[in-house]
Known about the structure:
With 259 residues, chain A is an alpha+beta fold. Helices cover 37% and strands 27% of the residues of chain A.
Amino acid sequence: xxxxxxxxxxxxxxxxxxxxxxxxxxxxxxxxxxxxxxxxxxxxxxxxxxxxxxxxxxxxxxxxxxxxxxxxxxxxxxxxxxxxxxxxxxxxxxxxxxxxxxxxxxxxxxxxxxxxxxxxxxxxxxxxxxxxxxxxxxxxxxxxxxxxxxxxxxxxxxxxxxxxxxxxxxxxxxxxxxxxxxxxxxxxxxxxxxxxxxxxxxxxxxxxxxxxxxxxxxxxxxxxxxxxxxxxxxxxxxxxxxxxxxxxxxxxxxxxxxx
Amino acid sequence: xxxxxxxxxxxxxxxxxxxxxxxxxxxxxxxxxxxxxxxxxxxxxxxxxxxxxxxxxxxxxxxxxxxxxxxxxxxxxxxxxxxxxxxxxxxxxxxxxxxxxxxxxxxxxxxxxxxxxxxxxxxxxxxxxxxxxxxxxxxxxxxxxxxxxxxx
Lengths: 259, 152
């Protein structure tokens, strides 16, 4: 393919990525652009006389609002929305992104401006505090990698009852392999439910703890927050080895032990 | 803090989740075409859990999301727009986001238990609650009807 063909191929392919179909009183353009969670950005067209209005019909704002419990935007978020609209020549009116395509203007160019504004505004999502936080299980995975344990993460195993259980780690060590559940929660009142869930898993998976290749069951408590009661530990102790995440070396030692 | 897969599964399978009182759709702060509500989900485990609903009657598009205060959105039903998964698979206009440690809430699938149309938020709500194991001890009101020209 020569350079001319490349450009022609790109130009024709780009157009195919935008699908425009009648949609009630509007025309809907399904764009290839995505909101941060992977949902497609759609735009809508409506003609009045010789002007076509391009809008997201409030979907970007609705998408953003559905990610958070806040009823109101912060002044900073509102300022960022205004800035994105200014950059792309888009009007923010009653929560909708709007741009007019007047006679002689390119509808594709106007639609692209609105789509770009939708992208920028939806990216305010990245400023939400809960997004960039590592879970305790991520930390455990980092630790196992650092200690050069071979492991499989989030393995789904069938219990004796037929129910499937997603175990956090299946660790393969030289002497004996192990299944590890990480018990972690930010809520004291939820702690018991988590412990009971793990107890049920160990009980239902107990067939894997028998035979010459018996797996060791490890219940790893994330005790970085003081939420666990003595009863929570006692619940899982009969069926598993209990380790605290505040003592990571003991986890490594437990995984390396033969029996 | 983010939640683990085990926490998520525990939360979702907990059948004590309940919502008390009636749900009334309200305008948002921009007085946009959309309506929304927010309600606290109570449970024996005491999760700081909320459900947020939003409805755009113009499309129509509808979303119900479970939001854990400490982790953000962990579970959501979307009707009215397509979805693209991190594995590059495309999911249609009815899809559910489900928390996983790998993809957080970016992974979605097509549910088989949602048959009501997005133009009927009350019927979808009943199906959503059944699947998410939430008892609603109250009634959901229908969203108000919008009148008048929107933006032209």
